[in-house]
């Protein structure tokens, strides 16, 4: 038994003994509703037990966030590709590490959503003034409402399956800036349709977007151009990262192999194991793969091929800065 395994088992044991009954009931209620169309999460799936354990363990650790509904979906996608213990540490890393900062989106009152809305609106104005003005006329509240939908599940409820995990790989590569740019693109990419819609039309459009056919090549071309940063888009939210003891929990852990791993030239392991601070330059030769549309349906093909792999494990590394 590794040190990492003992730590996770101890966290889970305490979580089952000490977590508030209300939170336990909420998690129990939400787990069966996650990824219901995926074969791994059918009725009485063994993955439901692992998913419950992951989210419960994290809820016990993070008293400020505890549990929020979208967390189940994020953890479930990790669980499609990783074993339970590894998925837990991966989820905790996305929540707590400075590069990803997912934790802040689940804080009570959603203050980070307000900050994200300001940045996205500024970027939309830079890219398309008419669309920006249309959003203002509709009411800025609609932007925050939709951003909650986007960020809570890391786009799972919004993006079609042939785009979703590719966006996740980009998020792992670039960090939180990917959330900013993808949220911006979700508006500008559909600007012609959105300009014709009312408040209710906006909501309905994004509710149905997961089933829409999207020009994948054009989507990733436009996203790649954002990272090229030729228009001076706003990159950072007005939220300072203030680490505490909880945030140091994952500092000594790294993922040995990748999560999505689309092809031999590019895999998420290169991102997660990168020690160079400027990883976008370190792996610039992989970016053509990162933004390509080579996978027709990664949601099924990747999860099916990687979910039961024995190659995924957490390794203890005191020098890891990822």
Order of strands across the biggest sheet? 1-2
For this structure, the CATH topology of the domain at 111-228 is Cyclin A, domain 1
**Spatial separation of the terminal alpha carbons:** 24 Å
Q: Assign a percent range to the helix content.
A: 55-70%
What class do helices, strands and sheet pairing give?
mainly alpha
Secondary-structure element order, as H and E?
A: HHHHHHHHHHHHHEHHHHE
- Per CATH, the class of the domain at 111-228 reads Mainly Alpha
List unreliable stretches of 5+ residues. 255-286, 295-322
CATH architecture of the domain at 111-228: Orthogonal Bundle
How does the overall form come out from the CA principal axes? globular
Q: Strand count, sense and closure of the main sheet?
A: 2 strands, antiparallel
What's the average pLDDT?
Answer: 77
Strand content: under 5%
Query: CATH superfamily of the domain at 111-228, please?
Result: Ypt/Rab-GAP domain of gyp1p, domain 3
Question: Cα-atom Rg, whole angstroms?
Answer: 19 Å
The total of beta strands comes to 2
Number of helices: 17
Please tell me about this protein's structure:
There is one protein chain. Helix content is 56%, strand content 2%. It is an all-alpha fold and 322 residues long. Among the domains are: 4-97 and 243-255, Orthogonal Bundle (Helicase, Ruva Protein, domain 3), CATH 1.10.8.270; 111-228, Ypt/Rab-GAP domain of gyp1p, domain 3 (Cyclin A, domain 1, Orthogonal Bundle), CATH 1.10.472.80. The protein has a two-stranded antiparallel ribbon. α3 packs across α4 (71-81) and α6 (111-127) crosses α10. The radius of gyration is 19 Å and the shape is globular.
């Amino acid at each position: 038994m590794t040190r990492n395994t003992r730590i996770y088992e101890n966290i889970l044991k305490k979580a089952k003994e000490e977590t508030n009954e209300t939170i336990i009931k909420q998690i129990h209620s939400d787990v069966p509703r996650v990824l219901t169309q995926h074969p791994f999460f059918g009725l009485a799936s063994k993955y439901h037990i692992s998913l419950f354990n992951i989210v419960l363990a994290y809820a016990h650790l993070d008293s400020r966030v505890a549990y929020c509904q979208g967390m189940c979906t994020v953890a479930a996608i990790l669980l499609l590709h990783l074993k339970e213990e590894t998925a837990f540490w991966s989820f905790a890393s996305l929540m707590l590490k400075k590069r990803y900062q997912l934790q802040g989106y689940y804080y009570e009152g959603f203050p980070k959503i307000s900050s994200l809305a300001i940045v996205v609106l500024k970027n939309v104005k830079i890219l398309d003034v008419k669309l920006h003005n249309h959003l203002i006329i509709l009411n800025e509240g609609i932007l925050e409402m939709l951003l909650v939908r986007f960020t809570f599940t890391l786009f799972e409820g919004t993006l079609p399956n042939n785009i979703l995990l590719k966006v996740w790989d980009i998020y792992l590569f670039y960090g939180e800036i990917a959330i900013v740019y993808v949220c911006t693109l979700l508006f500008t990419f559909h600007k012609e349709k959105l300009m014709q819609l009312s408040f209710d039309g906006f909501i309905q459009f994004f509710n149905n977007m997961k089933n829409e056919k999207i020009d994948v090549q054009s989507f990733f071309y436009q996203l790649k151009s954002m990272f090229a940063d030729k228009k001076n888009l706003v990159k950072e939210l007005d939220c300072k990262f203030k680490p505490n003891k909880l945030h140091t929990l994952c500092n000594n852990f790294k993922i040995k192999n990748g999560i999505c791993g689309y092809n031999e030239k590019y895999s998420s392991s290169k991102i997660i194991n990168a020690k160079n601070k400027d990883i976008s330059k370190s792996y610039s030769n992989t970016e053509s793969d990162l933004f390509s549309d080579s996978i027709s349906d990664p949601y099924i093909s990747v999860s099916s091929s990687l979910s039961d792999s024995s190659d995924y494990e957490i390794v203890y590394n005191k020098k890891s800065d990822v």
